[in-house]
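Final report, results section. Input specification for complex C-07:
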Amino acid sequence: MRLRLVPAQTSFDFFKRWRLWLGISGLMMVVAFGSFALRGLNYGIDFRGGTTIRTESTTAVDIGTYRDAITPLGLGDVVISEVFDPGFRADQHVAMIRIQAQDDQEAISAAMTQTVEDALAAVVPDIKFVSVESVGPKVSGELVQTAVLAVVLAIGAVLIYIWMRFEWQFALGAVVALIHDVLLTIGIFSELQIKFDLAIIAALLTIVGYSLNDTVVVFDRVRENLRKYKQKPLKEVMNLSINETLSRTLMTSLTTLLALIALFVLGGDVIRGFVFAMIWGVIVGTYSSVFVASAILLFLGVKRDWSKPDPKNSGNQFANVDA
Amino acid sequence: MLHFDTWKRVLIWLLCAAGLILAMPNAFYTRVEQSNDARAVIETGMTTPELEAQAGQWPAFLPSSLVNLGLDLRGGAHLLAEVRVADVYENRMQAMWPEIRDVLRPERASIGTIRLQPSAPDALRIRISQPENMARALEVVRGLARPVQTLSGAGSTDIVVSGDGAEIVVALSDAEKLASDDRTVKQALEIIRRRIDEVGTREPTIQRQGTERILIQVPGIGSAAELKAIIGTTAQLTFNPVVGRGSDPDASAGVGNKILPSMDQEGVYYTIEAAPVVTGEDLVDAQPSFDQNGRPAVSFRFDTTGARKFGDYTRDNIGAPFAIVLDDEVISAPVIQSHIPGGSGIITGNFTVEESTNLAVLLRAGALPAGLEFLEERTIGPELGADSIEAGKVATGIAFAGVLIFMGLSYGLFGLFANIALILNIAMIFGLLSLIGATLTLPGIAGIVLTVGMAVDANVLIFERIREELKTARGPARAIELGYEKALSAILDANITTFITAVILFAIGSGPVRGFAITLGLGLITSVFTAIYVTRLLIVVWFERRRPKTIEV
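Structure output:
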């Protein structure tokens, strides 16, 4: 007996309340943006400069002791947190120490890191410094610019590609869905104050890629069905298309989630934030391809006369290159 | 119908086999790595039975390229340095002063006395006492200008000479500054490479980034501080005439001179002429040695120009002190006893044996043309890397198993075909990564796990389509064919859009992000290949053998 996620034939009405869904999505975007604007992101040193030190010792981490050792050095804002992971050995106690960028210097100072290490080694004899990373303020500023540029470029490139392959309404729908996904991801990062570093930008772009993948599959079916059923109202064509691709959508989302959850649980704490962003993105991306991208397509309407019998005369020269 | 040309079948199997063979060394990572290292040593001429045994651990006829492990997996140090290109301007201008003085001297009858004035570090200001003949002075100085080769081919010269009241202002032209910056960074890159090679670590990455930056990644090194100690010292060696000696660092040095501290005598400062007689650039060799009292020292030898300059100077200045300056500190200031014609000498100071060895290495590698400013530094301990690899392996294994089981349950026999394709897919990713010598980073592992999840997407699309086509009941062969045909546009569109984001990530990102982009991009290519060709071929072969009347997907 085969495992079926959905019955062979489904006829859910996805667009019964599409305005409501669009409204909810819009509201969530506003909330996410509000959270970002009010709380801000918990930027890692990649974006704000500074130093992080990861320590490991066989004795339990006592944050108070660590703080008492570092405070006299007068380094400004120092954040100390203990790290937990199911993969750690019983006597493996890990802490992360983040020190703000020191105001008076452009570059980073090895001497400062050394003083911190010495101060900690004095109170915790067996402490090891398994990773020490410093980013100067000059670079971190550029990294922010590059990151924003990467996301904007990716969205722009995708907009153009879908416009070429489909119609501008499709492209707009897909891009709004992408912005929705990116905003919601940034929103949850600011709401939960998860560390936002360079790797998260990679995750954001992957989300862009994944969400798009999903949207394009649905759109491809819509395009095909629009040619097949020329008289059917757009709403019905879209409902049919989404129902037809539903089994695939859920299959792929589940296999991807399965892989990501394995990585989230077992992949160690170093990439946990990164994997969390991707899991969130897969869920949001699957949702948005139906309730944002498709709903916008329905809202904008599609010019129906481009699916003429002769594909060479169709409204878009790139639409049939591979058929 | 379900037709596949023989050459296509052969090609597909060959590609799969190539992927598997190329990926194979990675399954025996430590063994292959030891064997490769041993071979590299044997190639240099040294050989011992032990090395031979290590080299023999992996047969020579098999491919031996491995995926490089990134710093976050192997541990090591990462530095991003900015070359202070402007340092060079100052040296250039200082070196120019004697030249300018020499061409102006014969003109003293018309332009009067010439005096160097204090100025910005990247310019020279020279006051003449008879400014009415400024035009003549400018003409003479302009005669020193040399043409600069620029990309635009326009005829620029290296210096700009202008008159400002009674002063001649000489500065480097913009074209020359650009050319000089480029030279400086290239030179710094080369010298950093040589210094790191002298220490002999495995596979360092030394790359230029942008116009003025250098990225240095050295796996296996203990800390970024250690790496900085190797490359951080400029080791700018110069030999300058000494003007005076004192104990006040803020005394007025006089124009064209500077005051530098002594390296080993606290509170002693030397006033020296800023323009050196000879520099470390004229050195051809430097070796650690001992002086006549058995103290560690460094012996050196000049090239012919250096030897001539040094010889002439020592001949003309017997009895005068002479400063040996390293990185703006006076190592020693011996008095010239006699003419030194041979172009070789010895530097003595309060060195330990280790210091003299290091200094010799630095002098041999050449001086960094300009100072470095470190913008970013990261040290990752090997334990953390090992933990990350371990966690990554477990997670990838579980993710892999989960997806395989899930696909098998959902699509039965076809799921099995997809699973074979998925295994080949992962092998091909590793094969390609080893082939291009890419670096696997922690986010890269995440990229592979994501590929495992998404790679089945193309197959899912096809299988779902075949299911749909089966409903219209035109026979299983036709359904399979239509399934592939109709799913193709969705597969291509979906993967191309994702590929675009991977390319953008690769182009803009750096370090780990780039590693992620590479695995993601390669994973897309291999997953599309395995979905449209490998599973299809498997299905076709199965179909030809069995000729089933009905199929269940």
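The CA atoms of residues 77 and 100 of chain A lie 6 Å apart. Residues 18-42+140-318 of chain A form a domain with the Multidrug efflux transporter AcrB transmembrane fold fold (CATH 1.20.1640.10). This concludes the modelling results for the funded period.
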